[in-house]
Write a structure and sequence with these properties.
de novo design (two linked rop proteins), mainly alpha
Length: 187
């Protein structure tokens, strides 16, 4: 009887330790997803801060392109107001489209393309876009790890008991962003 009680106690302790380990693992992964999302958010804010300066620099040269500049401003406002990962992804896709159109229009203004302020801002924006792409990839990797842990047996039992929800992927919504950019060396 004593041996059976000790065996049951050992099994119970092992189960409790396993639950604690699985729970802590899920917490760690959820925090990594949150951290990865905050990295995207930092880069998106940086991008949102650069865009008005870029638009203001271009305004003097692009007097006839009011609609393009207004579309960028509206898309930026929608992107900044988006809350969920999916809404942010969609709004950022719209902003990418507006920015792509803007840079196509800039090609028609050689004086603007030669402006040092504009070139510096454009370089900063390009650098930020690269950081956003890296952060987006990191976030999606972390979301994948977390979602796998939530869905796989036996950790899915703990995830269900403690109401862990899957992380949403930051996916590109806009077809324009999937297109290969055109490289033109004709100045």
């Amino acid at each position: 009887m004593l041996i059976a009680l000790i065996v049951i106690l050992v099994i119970l302790v092992l189960v409790v330790l396993w639950v604690i380990g699985a729970y802590n693992s899920l917490i760690r992964l959820r925090n990594q997803v949150r951290n990865a999302w905050s990295q995207i958010d930092v880069q998106l804010k940086r991008r949102h801060d650069l865009i008005p300066n870029l638009v203001e620099t271009a305004k003097g040269y692009m007097k006839h392109e009011r609609e393009t500049l207004e579309n960028i401003t509206k898309a930026r406002s929608r992107a900044m107001a988006a809350e969920s990962v999916g809404d942010k992804a969609q709004a950022e896709g719209e902003l990418n489209g507006a920015m792509s159109k803007f840079f196509l229009v800039v090609e028609n203004y050689p004086d603007l393309k030669a402006n040092q302020n504009f070139l510096a801002l454009q370089e900063e924006l390009t650098s930020t876009e690269n950081k956003i792409a890296f952060s987006r990839q990191n976030y999606n990797d972390q979301a994948l790890f977390f979602n796998n842990k939530i869905q796989m047996f036996p950790s899915n039992i703990i995830a269900g008991m403690f109401n862990f929800k899957e992380a949403e992927f930051f996916e590109i919504e806009e077809d324009a962003e999937r297109e290969v950019p055109k490289v033109d060396f004709d100045y």
